[in-house]
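cache lookup: miss for this entity combination. No prior model stored, computing from scratch. Input as submitted by user K.M.:
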Amino acid sequence: MNPLSYDVAKLLAGMLVLASFLMLYQVRLSALLNMLGVHAFILALAVAWQATIQHAPELYITALITLVFKALLIPAALQRIVTRLGLHREIEAITGIGLSMLAGIALVALSLEVMLPVTAHIDPVTREDIALALSVVLIGLLMMVTRRNAVSQVAAFLSLENGIDLAAAGAEGMPLVVEISVAFSALMAFLVIGIFLFRIRERFDTVDIRALDEFRGDRR
Amino acid sequence: MIALWGVLGAPLLGAAVLAMIPAYRLSARLNVVVSGVAFAAALELFVRRPAPGLFLMVDDLNVVFIVLSSFVGFTTSLFSASYINHELETGRLTPAYLRFYHAMYQVMMFGMNLALVSNNIGLMWVAVELATLATVMMVGVYRTHEALEAAWKYFILASVGIALALFGTILVYLAAHPVIGTGLQSMAWTVLHVHARGFDPALLDIAFVFLLLGYGTKIGLAPMHAWLPDAHAEGPTPISAVLSGLLLNVALYALLRFKMLLAACPGGIAPGPLLVTLGLISLLFASVMLYRRRDIKRMFAYSSIEHMGIIVFAFGMAGPLGNFAGLLQMAMHSLTKSAIFFTVGHVAQVKGTQRLAEMGGLTESHPLLGWSLLAGVAAIVGLPPFGIFTSEFLLLSSTFARAPALAVLLGGGLLLALGALLWRASGLAFGMVRGPIGPVHASFVPIFAHLALVLVAGVYLPGPMVAWFQHVAGLLG
């Protein structure tokens, strides 16, 4: 393995983790959505790099889909929803920034600790990619549970899916089925979410999940 | 091969056609026809099955699931046809939404059938996701405050679940890759099972944890069950029936396949204890929670969590008896629970509410509905002579022989659930008549068909069927 290709792959995967951290401490919704675009852009670069070093041209398609849909269209559409609906521009988090950053660091340590030993026999590029992808997934989960606003939860979910995309691209020679499916699912997810956001708006004039929490089935 | 295309093609084609038909009476009938064709094709698979390909396969294990799921899909479409008339009259659904509803019903059936017949771990994941998205849309179809919240919660939790399952799937591929090599082969079940011996056990262990959490969310195992009661309670009742009867089974099937893979790999962790623990937690948790339910559909949703707990426990105990009990319990639960939801759907329509406190004396006001509900509850809590008694007795006695402490917990959970459900059901069926007593336009055919099957299975299981189940139980290891 060419050391340069290894270094670049690791750099891009590391940047994706960094972008996850940047998303973790945003307090404004529009800034968060911009970061989501950056996140997906880094992913597109990482996938394209994997396509080059694995000599797997079909991965370029995945990279292109990522670039067009996840880095450009989806953040733009979410921004539009935010302005159209006149949502709160600030993100309400359950924990403070400091605490969630610390938790994020712990999650990265955890994923490296879990994944690196068990992947000892695998190609080193794949190995690092999988470990860092798991960090992105876990930080995405953390973001989902600490955010109250529906739009920021969606953004968190999309960053989580980016992590899985990274893992799929890093897994050498994995058949195209999965890459297409992931892109497809992100699109579908977005469609569903978009519809739901509009419906939610119709009904309660807010996209704050807390407004939904007042309903707890049995207590009505 | 034609049968296999029938199982997949009928729902897919049906979805496309149903999406274009605005006349709801016609589309309700067409929905029944399409589901019937898929069921006929599934029966054909039972007799003659094609050789496994790179993407699709039918073997002894999944054919059981396919036949069961297309049968319940067919009877539910019958129930749905009588159910939606009332929803139109009360204005809860409009013809435009019904068009969408019927198309989505077939998309969901397609997704589930594809997940069951796929020979590729990636394709299977895509199919589960497709079925999930279709059901999310249907749960939210009433567009009320509650329905939207339920759909949103279901969507978010299920998405996280299937995202984790995909990560697990990628890890399985990574474990298979060094042994099998690149290409579609390394994601095909048929090839994976042959080579599982050589996989890296540590990697497969981690993969299984992700798959257990991911597909476990879809199965509705506690503590990942939060979406299940809301989705069951707020969607249209036919969807509650297929969610409980089918979709949970599909996720279970996926988990079982991966469990077989792990079991075939020496040096991996034993999946049994993990399944037993999660199963017991779900069973005990749901049994306790049953006592505090005030909404009839929510109550039976908790009963589904309880039963999935029992089934996962049974597969965790494994061995010929455990697996046999698990398979039988799964089939019986699907049939019984969907019959109960059919009845509950009509009860809720007559009473105009789902609140338990506002209904009562059903055997007096609507004898047929009341007694059907009572029979369904007797079956679901495991009273003889119904089929669930057979499987629960088998499970309990085999667990007693191997791990008495676990059997005590299992028995305790079963008794707790029995108490709660019988207490509620007697309040519903007997006593003073409460709530409106308008006429009911129910189709009793699906209800009776399901209950009759469960009764027959409890009284007499035909020899060939026992042999078949034993054979499949043996495959599960």
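stored under new cache key. Chain A has one domain: 3-219.
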